[in-house]
Design brief:
single chain, 299 residues, alpha/beta, six-stranded parallel sheet, 6 strands
Length: 299
Amino acid sequence: MLPWKRVLRPLAALLLTAAAVTVPATTAQASGAPSWGSPLLERSRELGGGWNDYSCKPSAAHPRPVVLVHGTLGNSVDNWLGLAPYLKVRGYCVFSLDYGQLEGVPFFHGLGPVEKSAGQLKDFVDRVLAATGATETDVVGHSQGGMMPRYYVRFLGGAAKVNALVGIAPSNHGTTLSGLTHLLPYFPGAADLLTKNTPALADQVTGSAFLTKLNTGGDTVPGVRYTVIATRYDEVVTPWRSQYLNGPDVRNVLLQDLCPVDLSEHVAVGLLDRVAFHEVANALDPGRARPTTCASAFE
């Protein structure tokens, strides 16, 4: 017999999270890509020291613009207040988008169907390439943002436009949320509630139809370099080894192998971990890569 009190509490937390982010939403249809005048994109210019500057022209040293893809419940600004300026000051043209918006839910994005979000990324990359004059981009994503671009690369023509894909704690093979998703079958209608109100959460559950489609036939696409940066303390994308990719041109990195005392978990590794940022910079420019250590936090 199941210990219902122990089961109900964590599952209730999961369902309350899904419900909270959909109020006052009345539909789970993702809205269109943000316009050039999006308030969040304008805010990024103010806070980020010049990222999302469409007059930026890539240099010979960094010939590809970098597109940052936020995670579930993130947005184009708050997810990148650490990494965007870090890359910008190192000479990159840096851009970030909002995707997966639900009607009536401001600021907390990445909740719409992942397949539709990949279409928004496709449109955004095309705009960035048109504005900068570049022929390829590098993509860096956190959590869902590290996994979703793989759909764009595989199914929407992104392989011709993406040189490198760097995933920070990406949900490449889904998540069990520390075992929480295993409880869904014990609560009739719970899985349907997630699918209806927060499609991206359902898409990222281990074994989902979306992930089965994404990963069937291999994790990678020829011509794209892949880097995964994981932390053993990840409590969101679990087990953390599920983040790793298999295939050619893949580098899987465990943050604690670079800096054993780094305690960053899922959120911190994308928001403020400069050891992880240093490894992102290495992945973007492997020809100038320098060893990442604990001291990289001070560079």
